[in-house]
Amino acid sequence: MSKATPAVAIEDLQFSYDGAPVLQQVDLEVPEGDFLGVIGPNGGGKTTLLRLILGLNRPDRGRVRVFGRAPQQMRRQMGYVPQKPNLDPEFPISVDEIVLMGRLGQSRLAGGYRREDRRAARQAMEQVEILPLRGRLFGKLSGGQQRRALIARALATRPRLLLLDEPTAGVDHRVEHDIYSLLDRLSEEMTIILVSHDIGCVTEHVKRLACVHQRVFCHETDEITGNIIEAVYRGPAEMSRHHPDDEERSGGSG
Fold first, then answer.
1. Which of 56, 53, 4 is nearest to 194 (CA)?
2. How far apart are CA 224 and CA 229, in angstroms?
3. CA neighbor of 120 nearest in space, from 79, 87, 85, 81
4. Is there a contact between 125 and 132 (Cβ–Cβ < 8 Å)?
5. Domain boundary assignment for the chain
6. 134 versus 218: which is more confidently predicted?
7. The whole model's pTM is what?
8. 56-60, 77-81, 157-161, 219-223: lowest mean pLDDT where?
9. Cβ(160)–Cβ(7) under 8 Å?
């Protein structure tokens, strides 16, 4: 019986900015259906890791595969929620228009959006429970409502893989709880990779945790200890020393 193709497979990856190493010797496998949390210090490579999976950056060495193919070939099957939307809050764009942006690249541009695009956008807004807000201006929404709209935009692609970069940054605890409850439901339908600084909260929801500080090591959530977290924030050398087998690929059982 052949092994199922993982949602993400990264092998011997190295990436640098202007000669400065950001990620080194990264091996990571994310099975389809996984809900993976990604933690680490600022500048440790978390967002860069997402960009490499999305195909927005190319590795200096090694390779990235998404469902067995190059990321650039699989963008239509990935949804992405950035930490900060590149949107002018004063620009008069409605929630409906924001979510429909997720259909760009999914269908032809000539002639505007198709009926199928509008159906996908409506379903996405229903999933995140913002359909009554569809006519509201995005810039007038609360922080939590804006986050839901951005998640809906990503879901409008009908992705197999959903990547989120700090989706609860800047929201209060109630909104944070609501977003994580939403992600719990979505994780039953698709593979999710979630970057977060909130270690305590994220470990209550994800299946596994990837610790990123130039190197990447994965652990089951019930294996996470204070020593592991401390090693992550000290740096790559401490992570390597802490890991029980530095030669073991990080996508293994942990």
1. 53
2. 7
3. 79
4. no
5. 8-242
6. 134
7. 0.87
8. 219-223
9. yes
